[in-house]
Amino acid sequence: MTSAASPPDTDSPNTHDTDSRGAPGPNRRPRLHYLIAMGFMLLALGQQATSAELFTVGGGGTHDTIQAAIDAALAAPAGATHEVRIQSGSYLERLTVTGITAGTTILVSGGWSAGFQAQGDQPGLTVIDAQGGGRVIWADLESGTLHLELLTLTNGLVENGGAGLKVTIDNDARFLGDRLNVVRNQVLRAGAAGGGGVAISGQGTGSVTLRRSVLQENRAQSENATATGGGLEAYLENNSSLELTSTYIAGNVAETRDSQVQGGAIDISIANGGSARIVDNLIENNRVRGNTVCRANAVVFDALGRDSDAGAIGEFRRNRVLNNARVEDWCAQVSLLVDRNSRMIVSDSIVAGGSHDGVVATTRGDGSATLSFVNVTVARNGGRGLNLSGGAGPITVANSIVFGNGGPSTEQIRPLLDVQMSANLVDMDPLFQNPQIDDYRLQLASPAIDAGISAPAGGLGSTDVVGLARLQGAAPDIGAHESTGSIGIEPCVATDTTLCLAGGRFRVRVAWRSFDGSTGVGSDVGFGSNDSGLLWFFQPSNWEMLVKVLDSCSFSGHFWVFSAATTDVEYTLTVTDTQTGAVRVYSNPLGVSAPATTDTSAFPCS
Questions:
Q1: In this model, does residue 28 exceed pLDDT 80?
Q2: CA-CA distance, 386 to 414, in Å (whole number)?
């Protein structure tokens, strides 16, 4: 604490208490100022700062249940960060968090060891399981901050949104979810169903952030009404905001029998001053089901406005939307709607491999809406690449690749009314590196390199889809990827379903098919090393496969690939050398007990 200044030395020969009229001398501090300073010091000493408190759950912890620890944290003095540490393990609970006071933060985190001094970095270490008896976590926030991290939320079952996690914010409340696994939760009802994994609603000036997380195998299912947002559904208005970033969204389903279905992965609406940033996410293999109207099988993103408000602001940047499908019939991968007074930017993203159109986008209202596409790659979709409808505000498309899509007469783009195009590569082979394995980087001979414009409508993104600086040459490249001038393939990025082994050089993925025809991808158990990893197929507690890539260059000149699986389902193990582009594929047929793989010449070391 900084103390008040000491009074002047009244015995000093250079000070004078008063002049001839009794006023303070020229070198003397007025006594009133000194008394005020002393008063503030005494007041500060009398005020004790609120102390942060720690609550623990698990063996030797302060509480037997997570809910009891959260309740204790909520009852602790306001104005501090109170922490709930949860030991690694499985907890059969359904949690509610409400009543956080202004200026208070509640941090709830998993992965803690016995003694609560060391924390693992995998969300699978601490599992909160609702056992189909309700919602896993409901956070109802009007003030303060709730921070959840390193938790798996599973087996929620409810009739309204957010079976895994429901977040409602008002006023200036804040929610942060970091490294959460929200898996295998379900909303099931006769009426409208949405937000199978996560449901978010916000107003006021509050914010919701979900980052570095996994939304997988969640379901929103309605018997006879609209089904939306199999993985996540969100609605934000009145200046509230959402940021969804660096999250893996896969295998989620929106399903209905007799009404509209949309957003197998995510369905996000912002209105009346609301905003949302959807950035750096991988959205793949989600789907919708139902013989009815379908808006999008992966992403629905709407920015809504009225004459009387400032509209909404949406950003969709550096996302990869890959191989999403409708089971029965056609459906676009991405559907965008921008209403009056609102604006949206889509940049540095890939939309590829869908069952029908890549992107369907519309502006609506009185002409004040704006929608811009910049450096977007739309490829290998079954229908049109871009299906655009303006007229109520401009849609601009710049520096983008639209190639290899289907549709009527192989029509790549269907622009209606007010759509403005500049510096795009449409229906001309851009020479992708290897689109068959979703590598849409550019070969060195690509006509897209240095062919873009530097000041497109909507603005140039600072980086490409994998984070490289956007400008590498004389001009920006066209498409989501910026060429570095060297040959290679996309670097390995570890996700819930991708292992990066041998120092990140090798990408490992597994796809499987079971006896009932269901399919999926292997998921990281979370216990691995530099050279090896474990994968599960059906549930995190049931480990199916060990994969190892060993550096034997010093005595054999090769990297070795070993694997062992305790399963008889069909699987395909794909290992990719990200330095050379070489790929090795190992398969097991359905009904055969998987043999061990011992490939001692898998990849040369050069």
A1: no
A2: 6
